[in-house]
Please model this.
Amino acid sequence: MSQARGTPGPISSRRAGTGRREEIVRAAARTFARDGYAAVGMRDVAEAVGIRGASLYHHFASKEEILYAICLTVTEEPNELNLPLLDAPGTPAQRMSALVRAHLEHLHRRRVEHLVGLHELASLTPRHRAVVDDHRRYYQRRVRDVVVAGMRTGEFDVPDARLAAFAMCDALNGISNWFHDDGELDLEAVVVGYVDLVVGRMLGAARTAGG
Model:
C-alpha cells in the first residue's frame, strides 16, 4: 500500500507471495486470460487450483481481490525487485541496462499476469486501481530520474526525459504480447537486443559513446 499518493512504500503483505496465495494468483491469471475475467467465478478459480471454494475464500474475499493481487505482481513487485538496481553503483547507462534486464526477466516470469492486468484493469475498484496506478507512476518516475542523470553526464541524448521514460517502459512491456519462448528467440537474446535498442539507441548511449 502506498505511504502517500505517488510514493509507494514497502511491498504490501496483500500482494501474492509464496505458497497457496501464489498458486491461486497464477491459476486465476491463467483462467482469466483464457476465459475472460467477467466470465470466471470464484468456483472456477477454486477448481483451477484444485481446492474447495471455502478454502479459496480463506485467502481472498472476492474475485476482485484476486485480480488486485495479480495486478500487484506486475506493478508493486517490480518496484521492490527492480528499482534497487537504479541505486546501485555504476553509470546511468550501466544502471539502466541492469534495469532493462531485470524488467524483461520479470515480465517473462509474469507474462500471463501482466496481460491480465493490462486487459482487466478497469475491473478493479477505484481504491485498488489508484494503488496500482501509483506503483506504475513511481516506477516510471524512477526511470525518468536516471534518464535525467544520464543527460547530465552526457551519456544519454534525448530531448525529453519524461517522454523517454514513457517510451522505454512501453517498449519493454510490449514483449508480453509477442515473446512466447517458442525457440525462435531465447530470452537472453531478447535481453541483449533490448539493452542495445533501449539504452544504446533509444536513450542515445551508443551515439554519445561514438557507437
